[in-house]
Amino acid sequence: MLKGKARAHTNIALIKYWGKEDEQLIIPNNSSLSLTLDAFYTETEIYFDEALTADIFYLDGQLQDEKATQKVSRFIDLFRQQANCSLFAKIQSTNHVPTAAGLASSASGLAALAAACNQALQLNLSKQDLSRFARKGSGSACRSIYGGFVEWQKGTDDQSSYAISVDSQHFEDDLAMIFIVLNDQQKEISSREGMKRTVETSSFYPTWLTEAQKDLVAIKEAIHQKDFIRLGEITEANGLKMHATTLAAVPPFTYWSDQSLKAMQVIRKIRKDGRPCYFTMDAGPNVKVLCQKEQVSQIKERLAEHFAPEQLIVAYAGKGIELIEMDV
Ligand code: FM0
Questions:
Q1: Nearest CA to ligand 1 atom 8
Q2: Contact partners, residue 40, CB within 8 Å, separation at least 6
Q3: Nearest C-alpha to atom 7 of ligand 1 is from which residue?
Q4: What is the SS3 assignment for 72?
């Protein structure tokens, strides 16, 4: 039996990945930049075992159905191919999220699974190769291989599209991200589906690509200069531009709920009152607030005037993938 176990943290993009050049290989149309966080992570163990007659996949202790298992199987196939291994596997994955608020992310899940496979099959893949493999499970997962600030360089093909760590002289240690959990239960359009529709139909999409490229250059400068205000301004503006593309899609859609709009307004007001903080959103209604660590308690207090305590979760910069020792 071959076994491996790994942990990966989730990441939130400050410059968003939005749209694919190649849907099969998951090559993006634009490079992106994220912050890996400490508060949400996935731990995954995998056993390749001669006794198994099919892959079996448990998520948070629950045996998963055929569809979910198939998705995981296809991803593991990439590693089986690489290792020339035909054994089936048992996969046990646990998402560690502070509340049951739909914050489990495919990024941490697929990054942890990639690292566990690498370990179990003794592939000795470099971080760069692990990032490439994780990318083929879910684009944003390629960034969760590393801690802190991470850039996914879009590249042009399977070999050249992977994430790298951004040299930041520990700037990320000054930062925090407060999650405002808005569990609206509205039917969501997955990021995969949403970006596809946007690429195919949104007249704003070409502009998104030129803007994202400029924003990436500018944000790397802000990181280099440890300029928080600039970092926040670029982050907020880039997120808004991504979300603007969905409004021009055919048919149009948005991930914003009334509560998201309320949160944005509250954040602008806190900022106007002299506390720097900036929002970003992904393919759902939750709002994430980028701020400085030293201001977390004051900003959280202001947010608590509008949102329940259990809706507010504070995260700090997190680590890249870690291997976990297994009992014999
Ligand atoms: O994280 O189709 O990785 O850069 O979160 O699996 O490659 O789930 F909402 C925006 C993440 C998209 C921005 O997309 O898609 C970001 C987003 P996949 P993902």
A1: 191
A2: 9, 10, 95, 96, 97, 98, 103, 104, 105, 108, 315
A3: 139
A4: helix
Task: Compute, in degrees rounded to 10, the torsion defined by CA atoms 228, 233, 236, 240.
Answer: -160
| 308 alpha carbon, distance to own chain's centre | 25
Question: Which of 31, 33, 131, 191 should be mutated for ligand 1, with most atoms under 8 A from CB?
Answer: 191
283-312 tens-digit pLDDT: 999 999 999 999 999 999 999 999 999 999
* Ligand 1 atom closest to residue 137's alpha carbon, by position in its atom list: 6
pLDDT, position 213: 98
The token pair that represents 139 in the structure block = 């684009």
Cα separation of 175 and 228, whole Å? 9
> Which residues lie across from 3 on neighbouring strands?
47
- pLDDT above 90 for 185: no
Mutate to test the pocket of ligand 1, among 21, 140, 288 (most ligand atoms within 8 A of CB): 140
Atom of ligand 1 nearest to the CA of 32: 4
CA 156, 216, 198, 187 torsion-angle sign: positive
To test ligand 1's pocket by mutation, which of 17, 22, 32, 136 has the most ligand atoms within 8 angstroms of CB?
A: 17
Rounded Cα–Cα distance for residues 294 and 261 (Å) = 26
